[in-house]
Amino acid sequence: MRLPLALGLALPLLLTAAACGSAASPSSGSSASSTQLTLYTSVTQNTVTAVVAGFAKTDPGVKVSVFRATTGQLNARIAADEHSGGLRADVIWGTDPLSMESYAQQNLFRPWPLPALAGVPAADKTTYFWGTRELYLVIVAHKGLTPIPQTWKALTSAVYKGKVALPDPAAAGSAFAALGYFDTAPGFGLSFYRALKANGAVQVSTIPEVVTDVAEGRYQLGITLDSEVRSAIAAGSPVVMDWPADGAISLYSPIAETVAATGGANTAAQAFLRYVLSPAAQTAIGKTGWQPVLPGIAGPPRPAGATEVYPGWSALFGRQQQILQQYQAIFGA
Amino acid sequence: MRAAKATAAKATAGKATAAVVTAGLIGALVVVPLESLGRIAADAGLTGIVTALTAPLSRVAVLHTVAVAAAVTACAVTAGTALALAVERRPPRSRLLPRLLIAGPLVIPEFVLGFAWSQAYGPAGLSDRLTGLTMPGLFGPAGIIAVLTVYGVPLAYLAVTAGLAARADPALERAARAAGANRWTTLRTVTLPLLRIPLLGAAALVFVTAAGSFAVPQVLGTPAGFGTMSTLIYSDLALTAAPAAFTELVVLSLALVALVLLALGPLDLWLARLPRAARPQAPSAVTAKRTRADRAVMAIVWAYAIVAAGIPMLTLILTALTRGPGLAPVPANWTLANFRAGFAGGAGAALARSAGLALAAAVAAPALGVLVAGLARGRWRGPLATVVTLAYAIPGSALAVGIIIGYGRWLDGSALIILIAYVAKFWVFGHRPVQAALDRLPPGLTRAARLSGAAAGTAVRTVVLPPLTVAAVTAAGLVFVLAFHELTMSTILYGPGTETFAVVIMNTQDLGGVGATAALALVLTAPVVTVAGLAAWLTRRTSARPLLVRTEPGTSGHHQRAAHPGRCGLRGLVRRLRAPGAGRPRPGRGPGPDAGAARVVRVG
Questions:
Q1: Residues in B 117-136 with any Cβ partner in A closer than 8 A
Q2: Closest by alpha carbon to B550, among B317, B286, B374, B327?
Q3: What's the pLDDT tens digit per position in A248-257?
Q4: Would you tell me how many other CB atoms lie within 10 Å of the CB of residue B7?
Q5: What's the pTM?
Q6: Are residues A190 and A80 in the same domain?
Q7: From A80, A212, A231, residue closest to B405, measured CB to CB
C-alpha cells in the first residue's frame, strides 16, 4: 500500500501547493500595514470597481482589498468573522438599510465619523450609517400592454388578473422594502397583498426574475428595481418602465466605518467614506446606473415628474420576521 | 513464537496508526466545522434552539424537506435501478453511450438546474413557444421532485452499476429462471436482494443531495409558496444579519445534519452487518445480438436524456446567446456579450484556479476514501460512512461558516481554506463508492495472497487496488464536476487573489442577468463535457481492438475479458472504466496471487 498511498497523499498536496501559488496573504486590514483597507460590500461589482479605481487616484497611499458577495453571503461572512477573532472589514457598504441596522445593533459600527459632510438627505442617515445611492422599486410592464397601471393600487384591478409577478420578500432586503412600505403605508397594509393574491398575483424568487418573466410574457406586470428594467430595455427586451404616479418605493444603500478599523485603517476608512460621498464618486455611481444620493448629480434618466416614497425604516428594524410571517400567511403554502 | 509476537505487535501498531489517521481526518473535516456551528447553537441556549425549530416556518420547512427528499429518493433509486438493470446487461461496448446519456443532467450546475427547467418547460418556455406544451405542476412540489429526481438518477445508477458488477451474478438469475421462476419473481427474489447494499447506499446519497438542494426549490417552489429548509436558511441569511436569524440558520443546518444522521445512522449500521463479499465472479453474460428489447431500452434512454438534460441545456445555450430576456432566440438577437462580460477581468486566472482546486479535490476525496475505507474494516465501517456523509449534509453557507470559524484565523482568504471546504463537502463521494468496492473483496484475501507467497506491497497492489480503480476514478470525476461547479461556499471563503471562476462571473453580474448566468453555467459545463467526450473518444478508439474472447467453457461458460498487456496504461484504465468489475481478481490471470487467493477463500 505504501507507494500508492504516498502518491495518493502527495498528489493532492502538490496540487494544493499549485492552487495556492496565487493565494494572497490574509485579507485582514486592521492588523496589516496602516494603509491597508478592507471593504466588505454587496454593491454591484461595476459600481465598486469604478469607485475603488477613483479612490486609488485621490488616495494612492491606501490599498483597498474588496470582498464582494450577495447580501446573504456577506452576512454569513461577517457572522463567521465575528465567531473567529472578530470582524476583518474596515468599511461595510451594503445594499439596503435592514442588514446594516442589525450590524449596528451588534455594535459592529462606529458612530458616523464625518457629521460635517453636506448633501445627504436626513431620511438617508442614521447614527451609524449614511446612504450613498438610491434604488427605486417600480412596476415593469410587458411591452404593448394596455392600459398600463398608473398606481400601485391598480395592480389589484380585475384587468390584471393573473398577470402580476412579485419578488419574494424573503429573498432580499430590496424586495422586502416593498412589503415594508406597503405594511405601514396609509391605504395599503397587508390587505393590499390579500387583494393581490385574490387577483391571481404570483410570487417569484428574485427581483431579476420578475423582469425575465415579464419580458418573456409569463406575466405582464411585476414589481422590481428600476436598474433591472433599464438593463433589460438596453438589451432590447420587450419591457417598459412604469413609474407609479404615487411614487416609486425608494431604498438607500448605506456605508459605515466598522469598529475593526483602528489606527491607519481608521484614517483610511474615513478617507474612503469621504470619497464615496464626494461629487467625483457620486458621478461614477450615477454612471453605473444608480441614482446618486447627493442632490444635483446626474443619475440615470427618470420620467418627468417622477416622485418617490420611503419606507419608515426605523419602524421596520427588527420587525422583518413578524411582517414576513404575516405576508407568508397570504402567499405561502 | 517470537515472530508471531512481532507480527501481533505490528498489527496492533498498524491498527493504532489507522485509528489515529482516521480520527484526525474526521476531526479536521467533519468535527471542526460541526463543532464550530454547535458552539453558535449552544450560545443561543435551549430556548433559542427550541424557538428556532418550532417557529411555524421551520416546522413547515422540515416537513417539506423530508417529504421531497423521500419522494426523490424513491423515484431516483427506482429509475436508476431500472435503467442500470436494462443497460448494464448489454454488451460492454454498447454501455458507454447510455451511461453518458444518463449521467447527462449532472453536467448542468445545480444553481441553474431549476432555472433551465423553467425556461425549457414552464409557461412561455421553449416547449411552450414551439409546441404550446408546458409541464403541469412544474412550479410546486411535483416540479421540484421531478427535477431533483433527474439529478439523483445518475447517482443511483452509478451505485447500482457498481453493485451489479459485483453482486448480482447472472448465473443465479439463470438458475432461478431455469427452476421455473418468471422474470418478475427472479428480479424480486434474486436480483434485488443481491443489490440491497448498493441500493441503500444510493438511497442515502440521493436523500442527502435532495434534502440539501437550494436552487431548485428556490426557483420552482417560490411561486407555489413552497419552502424547504435550504430556502429558509437562505432567507434567514439574506434578509437580516441579526444574531437571532443567524442562530436559526445554524440550528436549521444542524437539524438537517441530525435528520441525515437519523436516516443514515441505523442504515449504515445495518449495512455493515450484512454479509459482505460476494464470491469473485466472472463478468455478466452478454448477448452481442441487438434484440428488440435492447432497442427499446436505447430509445427510452435517449428520450429520457433529451427531456432531462438535452432540452434544458439547449435553453441555457439559447439564453446565453440571446441579448436580453424575452427576445426570440434567433440569430438576429444573438450576441457574445454575456460571455465577454464574464471574461472582462481576471477570469482566466480564476478559471485556472478553479480547475486546480477541483482537480485537487478530485484527487484528495477518493484518496481519503481509499485510505479511510481501507483502514477501517469491521464494525466501524457503518458509523464511519455515516460520519463522512455529515459534512455533505451541512448546507454550503453553513459549512463555509463552520470552516472559517475553524480555520479562518490561519487560512483566511487562502486557496487552501476553499480546498478544505471542497474536500470536506465531497469526501462522501470518494468514500462510499470505494467502501462498496472494498466490501466486495472477500475477507482475508490479502492474507491469502501473502500465504501464497506475495509480498505485502504486491498483495495490496494486485489484490486490493485493482477493484478500487473503477470506484476511485468514477468518484474523482464526480468530485471534479461538483467542485468545479461549487458556488455557495466559494463566495463566502474567497479572498483577494483566490476568487474561483464561478465567483468572478457571479460578481460581474450578481447572478441577476439571466444571460450572464446561463453563460457562466455553460463555461462551467464546457470542460466537463470535453473530458467526457475525450473519454468517449478514447474508448471508441480502444474498442476497435477485440475486447471479448470466448474462453474455454468453464463452470458458467461466461465471456472472459482477454488479459491484455496494456492493462496498466491509459487504455487499460479507459477499458476498465467502460466495464465496472472488469478489474476484479480473475481466475486464470497467470502466476499472480489472486487466483490462488480466491480458491483459498472459497475453501475457507
A1: 122-125
A2: B286
A3: 999 999 999 9
A4: 10
A5: 0.81
A6: no
A7: A80
